[in-house]
Amino acid sequence: MPRPTLQPRVALLVGHSRLQMRSVARLLGRAGFRCDAITSDQRMAPSGTVRQVMPFETAGRWIGVAIGWQSRTGGLVVPCEDSLVRQVRDAGIDDATKCRLIPVTGPEHLGHVGSKVGLARALAGAGVSAPRFTVVESAAGLVDACDTLGYPLMVKVDESGGGQGVFECHSTAEARALSMRCLPLPLLVQEWIDGELLDLSGFFRAGRPVHFVHAQFISTVGGRFGPSKVRRYTPLANLDWHLCDSLSALSAALGLDGFANISALRRRDGRLSFIEADLRPNVWVEATRLFGDDPAPAIRAAFAQGRCRARPRRRVSPRTVDLPYPFRLRAWEVLCNRHGVWRTLGEHDPLDLLRHVSGRPGRLLTRMASRIAGFAQPSKAAPSPSDGGR
Question: Is this model's pTM higher than 0.85 or not?
Answer without folding.
Answer: yes
